Amino acid sequence: MKTTALLLxxxxxxxxxxxxxxxxxxxxxxxxxTGLVHGDQVGxxxxxxxxxxxWMTEEANAAVQGALDAGATEVVVNDSHGxxxxxxxxxxxxxxxxxxxxxxxxxxxxxxxETYHAAVFVGYHPAEGTTDGVLDHTISGxxxxxxxxxxxxxxxxxxxxxxxxxxxxxxxxVSGDKAVCVQAKKILGDAVVTVAVKEGIGKRAARTLPLKxxxxxxRQEVKKAVLQRKSMKPYTLRAPYVFELTFxxxxxxxxxxxxxGVTRLDAKTLSIRSDDPEVGFKFLRGLIMxxxxx
Length: 294
Ligand SMILES: [Zn+2]
Known about the structure:
There is one protein chain. By secondary structure, the protein is α/β, with parallel strands linked by helices. It folds into two domains: 183 residues, Dipeptide transport protein (Rossmann fold, 3-Layer(aba) Sandwich); 51 residues, Dipeptide transport protein (Gyrase A, domain 2, 2-Layer Sandwich). The chain has eight helices and twelve strands. The strands form two sheets. Strands 3-2-1-4-7-8-9 form a seven-stranded mixed beta sheet, with helices on both faces. Helix 3 packs parallel to helix 6. It is globular, with a radius of gyration of 20 Å.
């Protein structure tokens, strides 16, 4: 018995522990889902929302299947749009579990930790102010003009990649419109696998792939990305992390600047600093909530 156990553990070492778990984290936003271009589709009171959330669920499932094709032993899907109650559980891939509802402390990255091997972003959109960026915005459409970390302009994918990087998890795949794919390569480097499911013609129009083609591509490219995960570095910047938040209006900055420790850089811009990107991110979200005018 002892010899068998020894042989087994040697085999395990030689194969690099291939029988170990492979955990894949999938964050799914909505604005970058195939075919969607308007608030009537991505807003929960919009007339086409019921259709759009079915499309979002199908696209998430294609990514789950791609991760499974690559050998994933556990797949967690985080609903990352608006109320975060969009994905239809009844239709979700039976091999995934779902994180649903809001607010969540890490929002679009809730649940990420060092036990994951790869992170996948589906249905993502470009930063506020992107030319031909479909439904471009950063976290909160009417409130946030821009977010920078250590001087780098951050779409949501960059902020979320920093959170994954804090836990040593690389972002291996991003899908959405063409503009978000360009931003993903710019921030994360050329190794990240991207799928452009549509090309913006302004903010509320696009030339889009058909759903079936898009699902095929996402399944195939997520598989490829997860298999290549070891060639991708977790995204980090050098500490301290300086977050700069520019609001659309000075009155929004007035509201958020009541918090001690916040530096006001100009009428509309606040800055905070932390050695931990997760603390900086939570601070950022708090400032956005405070600054939001209802
Ligand atoms: Zn969204």
